[in-house]
């Protein structure tokens, strides 16, 4: 039975679905299925399942049924089918009934609705009419009321104005009341509220009112100012007063300025005081005052930070000006220790002040001040040192007359003096500056390298300018030397020699010692590519300078001698010269000059290598012998005319020891003196060669040279050179002589001897006097 | 290459002869007959050889060859109180005659002091000659017909002793003289001082020479042993200073063709050849870097040198004369020649290129 029910339900469902589905789609479905699966569709046509489809063929179904089933089943089927048909019939009947009922009721409803709607239309028209009427009426009302409303509004405005006017009229009274009660805030509020009216109409209608209220407000403002100015008043009260004054459009800036100026003035006084007294208490006082002022200002004028900063900047400037003054006093200099203590206190002070006002740039200012102070300090140290050295030098350069007389060896003393100055002074400066580095003040730490550089370049500059100064001095003295050639004992050449010695000293001792000291404490630094202090460069400069000075000294000295010789040669008329009786004056002068030079040289220079001298007796005899041979050769020349004697001379030259005349001078006594003497004697020879002599003239030259020979041998490092050169002079004179007959050796020696005795006597008397 | 003559002070190139390198040497002998030697570089040997010998009446202190006539020269002489200057003509050489006397063309009389030097007119054939003594400068007009020379004018230098001079090759009215310690230029039109370099040397200025290429550049030498190059327009500082010699520097001379070469000689028996590049004008020419201006020192001589002379024909040859009468012939080293030639070459080519563009 259950199966039957299922079957039935299924069929009903299918039916319903086929009813609601469109036929086409159904048939389409079918059509689609049909060609694809003929077997299925064929079977469907046969089965009961397809009974509800269009393609169902009852005949076929019947035939297949008859064919497939037996009779009982067929009968059963028949019964079933009959029952089914009956069921279907009843179902159909039921459905029809039900639908019919519904249809009937729907028809009824429509009928009712139709009746109702017909009635509504008239009602709606009525409503429309009424609404239109209402509208016209309301329009009328609006129109009639319009005029009145404007008036009411006007009246309303007037009323509020009147109220305001009333308020304004009452203002003075109220203000007074507030004044009496001390309620300034309220008063200010009232006044500020009324102020637009007073502004607008104050000149006309409310004059008195305005005046009165202004008077009151003035009082209030005065009181407020007083309140603000009163130091005893608590800070919030003062701040409030300022706020109120600000509302009253009182120029608060002026107040601010006043406040600041008075306070700053006070602070400045304190500052100057502390600067003058230099006591730490004063400076502490200053700092605390400053802090107080700053906090007070901040709380009173919360908006005036920028003004405070400005004012603080002014103060700062003055403060640092004072600091700078105390750091870099005009007169004299601070020692490193003083500087350090100052810098320390400064750093502490500034740190405090910086806490109070981080924006005012105290730290920057302080760093700047310290930097410049330290720079100044370093520069000053070097300047002082430089000034000392140059001062000492200029003292030597132009000595006072008495001084020169007092001291036996002025050059030696001054040399030692300057040498000490340079080395010890340099080391002291270094020590001083090292102290600054060791006792590192906070500010210095940040630019330690720069400081080291500063010191190094300070030395570099110091030595550089020292070389320059030396050179300029040597130039100046050179020109002076020419001008004062007449004056014997002019300090210029000796001074140049001193410079030379000094330069050598600096090169060989001063700079290495300073370098060592610098290396000990001032290592590192070098912001640039190379260190600021270059000892090798300095040494080079000084070496070159020393050589230059030495050459200059030799030049000047030998020129002086040359000029003397020149005069002695060019002045007389050699062709009409009288028989020589004595050695000429110039020889003594020459020797004096050489002696003077020797004095200078011996003071300044080291002795150097010992003289290459054979014992005096042997040398004099050799001189004599060479002289005699020369005389012989000369006489032989007279006899043999022609070029043979020249050949002879050349051959003689070949056998003579070739003397190197012009060697490179060394910085030793002997070398320098010989150099000068050699050049002078060479000049002697050249001057002689330009003249023509008579016999007596030649003899005079012979006499002079003979006289010069021994004293000059004394001072020169190599006697041979002197011999050679003096022989050359004699030979030159012989060559330029029309009748070169030499003096008798005995006469010659006698004259020279007496002259020498006389000179010794003179010297003895000079010393005695 | 040394020829022995008597003691001698002066040597001069025969400027008029451009075919051969010839030098005139005047001897200085008090007691013997003085001579003028004509020396010539042998074509085959390349060495100096005697080409002529002429007697001269007195000691020759100065000698200069006529710039336009091979056979004419002027000498400055003095002996035993006498002095003077004269123009001579070398006589036609008679074969076999060893010592031919010179033919005197004119004498420059009127000097009151010993004459230092004579200067020929620097440009072309002209009959003016300048003679300088210690205090005065004379200008003479030579009459070619043989009459005595006519004095055209004179300038007195005052107290300063004149030692030598040089007639400007650029401006024929200017003669520069070594005047005491300064260098003075005289204008021959006005007979006044034209320009001065005061304190050109610390001692007496001994010699000077005009740069052959630059109008205002003069080289001087002096008793302070230095050699200095001056621009007359900037007389405060020398353009360059050369260390010179160990004693006096007596002679200094520009090479006529290469202004970079300066020859100097002194009483230290040395002849020094200097290379002084001209001052850079405008764009810097890539001049080769020779760090030491002293190119070479010639040590051949044993006595003081009083005379030097560049060859008139070959710019690479110069002769030097020492007091003992030795004449030495020297050559500019080849490396320096190459440098100078390459400099000339590049400059001319660049000029050509410039002209083209």
UniProtKB/TrEMBL annotation, chain B:
It comes from Selaginella moellendorffii (Spikemoss). Belongs to the WD repeat EIPR1 family. The keyword Repeat applies. GO terms for biological process: protein ubiquitination. WD repeats lie at residues 198-233. Keywords: Repeat, WD repeat. Residues 6-274 form the EIPR1-like beta-propeller domain. This is EIPR1-like beta-propeller domain-containing protein.
């Amino acid at each position: 039975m259950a199966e039957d029910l299922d079957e039935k339900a299924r069929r009903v469902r299918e039916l319903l679905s086929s009813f609601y589905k469109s036929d086409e789609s159904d048939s389409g479905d079918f059509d689609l299925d049909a060609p694809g699966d003929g077997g299925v569709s064929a079977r469907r046509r046969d089965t009961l399942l397809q009974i509800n489809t269009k393609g169902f063929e009852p005949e076929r179904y019947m035939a297949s049924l008859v064919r497939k089933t037996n009779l009982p089943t067929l009968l059963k089927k028949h019964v079933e089918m009959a029952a089914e048909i009956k069921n279907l019939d009843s179902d159909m009947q039921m459905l029809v009934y039900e639908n019919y009922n519904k249809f009937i009721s729907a028809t009824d409803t429509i009928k009712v609705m139709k009746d109702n709607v017909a009635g509504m239309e008239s009602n709606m028209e009525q409503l429309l009419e009424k609404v239109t009427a209402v509208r016209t009426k309301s329009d009328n009302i609006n129109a009639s009321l319009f005029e009145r409303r404007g008036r009411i509004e006007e009246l309303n405005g007037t009323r509020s104005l009147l109220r305001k006017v009333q308020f304004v009229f009452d203002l003075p009274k109220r203000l007074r009341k507030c004044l009496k009660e001390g309620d300034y805030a309220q008063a200010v509020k009232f006044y500020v509220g009324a102020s637009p009216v007073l502004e607008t109409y104050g000149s006309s209608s409310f004059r008195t009112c305005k005046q009165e209220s202004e008077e009151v407000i003035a009082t209030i403002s005065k009181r407020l100012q007083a309140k603000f100015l009163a130091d005893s008043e608590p800070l919030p009260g003062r701040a409030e007063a300022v706020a109120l004054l600000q509302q009253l459009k009182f120029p608060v800036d002026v107040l601010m300025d006043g406040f600041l100026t008075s306070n700053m003035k006070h602070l400045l006084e304190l500052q100057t005081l502390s600067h003058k007294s230099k006591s730490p208490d004063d400076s502490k006082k200053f700092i605390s005052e400053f802090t107080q002022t700053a906090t007070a200002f901040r709380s009173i004028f919360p908006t005036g930070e920028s003004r405070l900063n400005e004012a603080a900047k002014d103060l700062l400037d003055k403060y640092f000006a004072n600091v700078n003054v105390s750091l870099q006093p005009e007169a004299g200099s601070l020692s490193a220790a003083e500087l350090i203590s100052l810098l320390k206190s400064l750093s502490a002070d500034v740190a405090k002040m910086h806490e109070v006002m981080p924006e005012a740039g105290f730290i920057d200012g302080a760093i700047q001040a310290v930097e410049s102070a330290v720079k100044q300090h370093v520069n000053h140290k070097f300047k002082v040192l430089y000034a000392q050295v140059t001062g000492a030098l200029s003292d030597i350069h132009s000595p006072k007359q008495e001084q020169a007389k007092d001291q036996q060896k002025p050059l030696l003393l001054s040399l030692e003096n300057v040498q000490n100055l340079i080395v010890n002074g340099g080391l002291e400066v270094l020590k001083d500056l090292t102290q600054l580095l060791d006792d590192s003040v906070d500010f210095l730490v940040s630019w330690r390298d720069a400081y080291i550089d500063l010191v190094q370049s300070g030395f570099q500059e110091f030595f550089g300018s020292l070389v320059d100064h030396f050179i300029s001095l040597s130039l100046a003295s050179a020109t002076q030397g020419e001008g004062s050639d007449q004056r014997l004992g002019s300090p210029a050449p000796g001074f140049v020699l001193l410079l030379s010695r000094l330069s050598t000293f600096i090169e060989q001792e001063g700079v290495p010692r300073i370098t060592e000291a610098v290396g000990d404490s001032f290592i590192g630094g070098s912001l640039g590519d190379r260190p600021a202090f270059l000892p090798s460069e300095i040494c080079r400069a000084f070496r070159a300078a020393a050589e230059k000075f030495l050459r200059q000294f030799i030049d000047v000295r030998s020129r002086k001698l040359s000029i003397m010789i020149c005069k002695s040669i060019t002045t007389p008329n050699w062709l009409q010269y009288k028989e020589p009786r004595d050695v000429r004056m110039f020889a003594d002068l020459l020797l004096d000059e050489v002696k003077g030079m020797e004095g200078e040289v011996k003071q300044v220079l080291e002795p150097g290598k010992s003289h290459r001298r054979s014992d005096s007796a042997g040398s004099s005899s050799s001189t004599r012998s060479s002289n005699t041979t020369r005389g012989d050769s000369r006489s032989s020349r007279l006899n043999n005319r022609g070029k043979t004697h020249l050949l002879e001379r050349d051959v003689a030259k070949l056998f003579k020891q070739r003397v190197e005349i012009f060697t490179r001078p060394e910085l030793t006594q002997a070398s320098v003196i010989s150099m000068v003497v050699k050049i002078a004697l060479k000049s002697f020879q050249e001057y002689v060669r330009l003249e023509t002599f008579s016999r007596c003239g030649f003899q005079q030259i012979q006499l002079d040279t003979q006289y010069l020979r021994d004293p000059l041998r004394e001072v020169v490092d190599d006697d041979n050179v002197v011999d050679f050169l003096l022989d050359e002079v004699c030979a030159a004179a012989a060559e330029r002589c029309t009748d070169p007959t030499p003096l008798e050796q005995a006469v010659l020696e006698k004259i020279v001897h007496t002259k020498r005795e006389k000179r010794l006597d003179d010297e003895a008397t000079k010393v005695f006097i | 290459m040394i020829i022995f003559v008597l003691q001698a002070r002066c040597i001069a190139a025969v400027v008029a002869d451009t075919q051969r390198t010839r030098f005139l040497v005047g001897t200085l002998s008090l007691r013997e007959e003085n001579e003028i030697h004509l020396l010539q570089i042998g074509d085959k040997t390349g060495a100096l050889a005697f080409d002529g010998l002429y007697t001269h009446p007195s000691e020759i202190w100065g000698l200069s060859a006529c710039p336009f006539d091979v056979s004419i020269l002027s000498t400055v002489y003095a002996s035993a109180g006498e002095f003077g200057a004269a123009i001579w003509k070398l006589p036609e050489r008679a074969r076999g005659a060893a010592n031919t006397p010179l033919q005197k063309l004119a004498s420059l009389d009127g000097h009151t002091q010993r004459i230092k030097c004579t200067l020929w007119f620097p440009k072309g054939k002209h009959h003016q000659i300048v003679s300088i003594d210690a205090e005065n400068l004379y200008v003479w007009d030579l009459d070619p017909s043989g009459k005595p020379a006519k004095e055209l004018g004179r300038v007195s230098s005052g107290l300063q002793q004149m030692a030598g001079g040089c007639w400007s090759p650029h401006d024929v009215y200017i003669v520069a003289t070594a005047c005491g310690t300064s260098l003075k230029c005289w204008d021959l039109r006005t007979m006044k001082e034209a320009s001065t370099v005061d304190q050109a040397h610390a001692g007496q200025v001994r010699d000077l020479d005009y740069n052959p290429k630059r109008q205002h550049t003069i080289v001087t030498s002096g008793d302070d042993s230095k050699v200095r190059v001056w621009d007359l327009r900037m007389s405060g500082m020398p353009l360059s200073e050369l260390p010179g010699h160990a004693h006096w520097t007596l002679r200094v001379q520009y090479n006529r063709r290469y202004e970079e070469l300066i020859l100097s000689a002194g009483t230290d028996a040395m002849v020094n050849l200097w290379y002084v590049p001209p001052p850079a004008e405008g764009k810097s020419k890539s001049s080769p870097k020779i760090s030491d201006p002293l190119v070479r020192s010639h040590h051949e001589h044993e006595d003081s040198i009083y005379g030097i002379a560049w060859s008139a024909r070959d710019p690479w040859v110069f002769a030097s004369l020492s007091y003992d009468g030795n004449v030495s012939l020297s050559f500019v080293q080849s490396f320096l020649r190459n440098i100078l030639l390459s400099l000339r070459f590049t400059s001319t080519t660049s000029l050509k290129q410039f002209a083209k563009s």
